[in-house]
Amino acid sequence: MLRFYQPGLAATQWPGFTRPSEYLRGQIAPKVTPEAIDSPLWLLSRRWQAPEIPGLTATTQRTLFDCAGKPLTESAEPPCRKPLHVWHLYRYSPGATGHQPGL
């Protein structure tokens, strides 16, 4: 949705994590390889654990909750009983592969 509503942002889908998006406005998402990454990046996912990406290390996790009638909230616990959506935002840095303990 970021690419659809904000096509000027440097946002893309990571190959192999999901199917190509229908929100690409007729464009194929550029292919990204871990070897080409030379600065930190953020990955938005529904997965509760940071996906393993060879050559990158997950260093930060944030959880975002979408509750009916409330603004999008970043929190460790849901701010409502039944969130409409839950997303996890992971920050990766180039370098050693793996996850930081306690992430």
Verbal overview:
With 103 residues, the chain is mainly beta. It folds into two domains: 1-32, no CATH class; 37-97, no CATH class. It contains one helix and five strands, in the order αβββββ. The protein has one helix spanning 2-5, and strands at 41-45, 56-66, 73-74, 85-94, 98-99. Strands 1, 2, 3, 4 and 5 form a five-stranded mixed sheet that branches. A hairpin with a 6-residue loop joins strand 2 and strand 3. The chain starts with a helix and ends with a strand. The mean pLDDT is 77.
The averaged pLDDT comes out at 77
Topology pattern, helix = H, strand = E: HEEEEE
Oligomer: single chain
User: Strand count, sense and closure of the main sheet?
Assistant: 5 strands, mixed
User: How would the global form be characterised?
Assistant: globular
How far apart the termini lie comes to 26 Å
Q: Quickly give the structural class.
A: mainly beta
- Residue runs with pLDDT of under 50 for 5 or more positions: none
Q: Tally the helices: what do you get?
A: 1
How much of the polypeptide forms β-strand, as a percent range? 25-35%
Tally of separate domains? 2
Provide the gyration radius in Å: 15 Å
Instruction: Specify the helix fraction band.
Output: under 10%
What's a concise summary of this model?
By secondary structure, this protein is mainly β. It has one helix and five strands; from the N terminus they run H-E-E-E-E-E. It folds into two domains: 32 residues, no CATH class; 61 residues, no CATH class.
